[in-house]
Amino acid sequence: MIVAGLQFDIAWEIPEENFRRVAPLAQRAAAMGAEILALPEMFATGFTMRSGEMAAHANAIHEFMADLAKRHGLWVIGGYAEPGEHRPANACSIIAPDGREVLHYRKIHPFSLARELDHYEAGEGLHTVEIKGLRVTPLICYDLRFPELFRAAAMTTDLFVVIANWPTHRAHAWRSLLAARAIDDQAWVLGVNRVGEVDGYPHSGDTSLVDPWGMVVSTLADKPGVVTGEVDPTVVRRARERFLFLADRRPDVYRRLEDED
Predict the structure, then answer these.
(1) What is the CATH number of the domain that holds 88?
(2) Pick from 132, 183, 208, 251: CA 20 to 30 A from residue 168's CA?
(3) Per-residue pLDDT in tens (0 to 9) along the chain, 261 residues
(4) 152 lies in which domain range?
């Protein structure tokens, strides 16, 4: 299955303009045979702390994603701010080709350095959906720094999709952690990031598809574009059958060591 990550410069807090910027990239991805299309974290507004104002656009963003999926006959993954119980949430949906939402995820780790938790409530659940035999688990930006999340879903996942707004001055960590999560969990990882500058912070993108051995299959830096690659779940199965790294884990020992701390 061909997957695509769309990398572009997000217009700050202007959903309609971002819809306009996404449209030709999505058309290009569809023409390249993509069946799954992923957009960056909060792709229609940017990673803004004006959570209440941006959550008001949630329905329009959701409708745009559904229309995109139906128009091109593919699965769309994208992030946005949405209303929450106490505060808005930094969320992600997977939309099927018929426009239905088949998975909904809320970012489990708000980014403390940006005081994200003051503006967005943390999610509590991790979810996976099967798409034509490919098991897909989405995560959001700062979640990438927490291997526990990936390990919790590893045995039921072939492809992790990490959507982000990750700045250039931490680009080495972005690239390294994408590869590390792939190696740790013997799974494909698609990291989808933005380009452009926000408040003096440049974003180089580095949207990348990484295979279960940690090798970069496709990547793009510093400019808008589409990153594509073929993801095969049998590669995951073969890797795990040949190298029993995950089977050699000792979770009972890990729990005891944590309890002792």
Answers:
(1) 3.60.110.10
(2) 183
(3) 999 999 999 999 999 999 999 999 999 999 999 999 999 999 999 999 999 999 999 999 999 999 999 999 999 999 999 999 999 999 999 999 999 999 999 999 999 999 999 999 999 999 999 999 999 999 999 999 999 999 999 999 999 999 999 999 999 999 999 999 999 999 999 999 999 999 999 999 999 999 999 999 999 999 999 999 999 999 999 999 999 999 999 999 999 998 886
(4) 2-260
Rounded distance, CA 8 to CA 203, Å?
Answer: 10
Q: What is the DSSP string of 56-83?
A: TTHHHHHHHHHHHHHHHTSEEEEEEEE-
Residue with tokens 């180089």: 204
Cα separation of 82 and 88, whole Å? 5
CB 57, CB 15: distance < 8 Å: yes
pTM of the model: 0.98
Answer positive or negative: Cα dihedral of 85, 89, 92, 97: positive
What domain count does the chain have? 1
3-state secondary structure at position 45: coil
